[in-house]
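As agreed, record passed on underneath.
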Amino acid sequence: MKANNNLLTMKRFSILFFVLLLSVSAFSQKVSISGEVIDKQNEPVIGATVKEHGTTNGVVTDIDGKFSIQVGKNAVFDISYIGYKTKSVRATQGMKIVLEDETNLLEEVVAIGYGSVKRKDVTTAVSTVSTEDLDTRPIVSAAEGMQGKAAGLQISQASGQPGASPTVRVRGTTSLNGSNSPLYVVDGVPLTSIDFLSADDIADMQVLKDASSAAIYGSRAANGVIIINTKQGKNGVAKISFNAHYAWNKVCDHDKVLNTWEYKDLMNDIGTVKLPDGLTDHTDWAKEVYRTGNVQDYQLSVTNGTDKLRYYVSGGYVGENGVLKMSNFKRYNFRASVENEIKSWLKFNGNIAYSDYTYLGTDITTGAGANRGGVIPAIVNTPTYAPVWDPDHPGQYYNNFYGVNISSPSENLARSKDDKSRYDKMLATGKITVTPIKELNFTSSLTFDRENGNTFNFLDPHEIQYGRDTYGTGYDERYSTTVFVWDNVLNWNKQFGKHHFDAMAGSSYTQSKYSHSYISGSNYADSDIKTLNAANKISWTGTGTSASEWAILSYFARLQYNWSDTYMFTANMRADGSSKLAPGHRWGIFPSFSGAWRISNEKFMKNIRWIDDLKLRGGWGQTGNQSGLGDYSYLAEYNINRIQWFGAGYDANALPTRSQTTLSNPELTWETTNQTDIGLDLTVLGGRLTFYADYYYKLTKDMLMTITLPAGSAAARDLRYNGGEIENKGFEFSVSSKNLVGKLKWNTDFNISFNRNKLKKLMLTQVYYSANTTDYVNQPVVRNMPGKPLGTFWGYISDGVNPETGELKYRDVNHDGVISASDRTDIGDPNPDFTFGMTNTLSYKGFNLSVLLQGSYGNDIYNVSRMETEGMYDGKNQTTKVLERWRVPGQITSVPKAKFQMFNSTYFIEDGSYLRVKDISLSYDVPKYIISKFGISRLQPYISATNLITFTNYSGNDPEVNQYGNSGSVQGIDWGTYPMSKSFVVGLKLEF
């Protein structure tokens, strides 16, 4: 009986085991599923991730959008791709999945300092700059691509010289003597320039505008922060991309000059130049100087990745020939990034970027008259009777202007034809991220940033007059800057029900070393050998070396709290200690606080269905500035004076002496900006319309200033000190709308910014004069003083031409009956009332059209060029405007007589407002069913036009130019500045 029971038990166990085995077999059985992923236009989505839900089992779609995968029975797929909504569907054989466009901007991830956050959770003023059209425009400087794209971001191309960087301002000018450029953070690395960066490598850009967002960067964030993330490898995306375009550039110059007969008539009126009879028109100087410029841009990238290892490699070449002959720019760029998940808790990132860029014709003279080598004024000022070359002296430029002190524009250009500046920059970063638990991670990164520069100038000893006077000169200057940055950041992120905490703390150490050498020589036999070993004289006063270094140590922290996506609070703190500042004053503490209330999440808003998101936010913070300070600005500095030791009667063992040039300041400390911001974010109609509004108030205190003391009042005349306040306040508005969302898509992005700038206070020196104009007047036209906007123009008020005398009438401002220097007053403001930009993008059946409008309103320009081309004060040729000059008593005209009494006045002030069609781009995506058979995943030819039309009343070549470039104290001066140009582009984007 017992044996039978045992047998029965064994049978039961055998049956149970067999059933279990069948069950396991059934559950472990895999099936093969194939399918296709497409978009709403029935186009294949290439590289979409198809993953079995709840597992790591997944594949990506091929060039036709198709996939095949082994999965368990009744599996569910999660299908995702950037720009589309993630979709979950049950697996079926031969399935076709249609992905919908991702239209919810609230879920967009926005980069902030040492982290990121979703757009809907932002509590500060952060603008995202669209990068969609960067690769279809002839952009050499990456910063140029931001123009007109974000409220509060004012960008102007001060010069059209090849490779020239634009002037960038975030919410106005905050420093009189220091730098006003923003801090750039590229892949987490703080930089002062992005000239080395190819626009094609940029993935996204954010602008931290208020102090509550920028304070995490502390001492370097007073002028705003622009965060740039470059393209990285992605999981499951294997792609080769090639982008090439060619642009033709045409100068925007419309000056008409007097012919020889008209010029001679003018000279008779002036009475200082006697010209012989028989002179005829010989040369069109504009044709001799200008040419059709061009830009070539070729960029190639390769990317691939798995869930463990991803990489991105790119390289390219940009070459630009300027519209002025002998000016050129070229850049070679290379970048590589790799991301490796070594362990589930350990990740490594490596980035390296190298760029080599060269400027030719770097010393083309602008901001000077034709008598001092100014190229642009000389195009007008050189009489048309003159030939280019001197027939009596072959190989020399013509310079017989019958006593007139000018040189032709061709000769002025030749001064810089052998001038070259070359730079190479390498930026390498290694980063380790450790995640011991899901909520906590620690990142340590080390960055090596090295830049080498070399400037070489050579002046031919025979070709031009200045070269003959100096027997030819040569100059070689070299410098090297090495910067190390070591960052350590700890992040903690935790959700407790409706309470979400995000905390960050870290440290940063930056050390910079700089070395510099220079040597100059003269007396060359000829131009066959241009190196300095061919110079017979090596300057013993114009030769030397120097070196310096500085360091910053920083500690920072941030706490973010979010309750149920309704109430949000952020607090930042950064402490910076800089070696550039005086001991005891080196440390600056820069706190900030911001909060937001998502009103749309409140119960009383639930029935208002047309509002998707409504958020009120506000913040306050402090940022610092030390830009513009030398490495040892708080110390007294000395010049080394070499004593002649050679020659009869001199001591062969003479030693150099030292003379103090600056005074020490043991109290030199940070320039600090306090900023308050109040903003409103609104999204309505299912994401079709998004609106952002901000009001801000910025007050900069303890401005970094330089004062020049009276001679003999101290051991040295120059002192660097803190003293003064600048105020900026204004409104910003941005609107994004999806006007049409069907087969024909039409999106509009518009932004407008109103900023008011005022210099509130100055210590020690109460008035700063700047910007002397033409040599004939030689008086400053800018006066900075408390109570006025920065860069205010100063001079006489002109009330037109006296019809009886032909002289300009100048207003007796102080009513003393005499026109004198005391009648000078404020005559113009270079700061605009508002700036704006609008982008319209239309897409239909593969065709894509983008139109960018950009402009400025209410800013004045002081046209110094007109003083040279309409001044009629000496023997220079003039524009045809002077044909309207006063000639006889009683004549009514707006142009005074020849040899009129000329001062800096409102006669040369012009309205600089403009509306510009900045860019029009048209592209076509060739259908994938046509190109896929050739293994091509994307083929997009495109054409574009830049600076196509400008609507303005300004009489000069371009209302955007500014001779003083990035200066905070002087703006809106046009004096023979390198002109802007129109560009016409053809290009091709190709992906495999």
